[in-house]
Fold this sequence. Notes:
This protein is mostly helical. The protein is built from 6 helices and no strands. The protein has helices spanning 14-21, 25-41, 43-53, 55-75, 79-108, 113-120. α2 (25-41) runs parallel beside α5 (79-108) and α5 packs antiparallel against α6 (113-120). The longest helix is centred in the C-terminal third of the chain and has 30 residues, at 79-108. The protein is elongated. It starts with 13 loop residues before the first helix and ends with a helix. The model has no long low-confidence stretch (mean pLDDT 85).
Amino acid sequence: xxxxxxxxxxxxxxxxxxxxxxxxxxxxxxxxxxxxxxxxxxxxxxxxxxxxxxxxxxxxxxxxxxxxxxxxxxxxxxxxxxxxxxxxxxxxxxxxxxxxxxxxxxxxxxxxxxxxxxxxx
Length: 121
């Protein structure tokens, strides 16, 4: 089942995930909510890493971490496994990709910077 659907509230895959994982609607939806929370709380760490290593290295590290989290999440059979891999690991990877992408766009565009950042967001 696609785990991306967990972020959405009215998902066609939510009921099969509840059946498969054995949790309730709230517990299963928690995976998507924790993904967004982890993604957001990774921002300050990502900005510090961007200052130290640059946007490209941090963004690539985030992509590798997110890919690992999604890959591991697709093999898990328990709800706690989904929360650990999809929510936490993938959330960290997404957070490490988000901030560097905005910084890279802001540094690249001198004219029409606000438009470029608006498209990036």
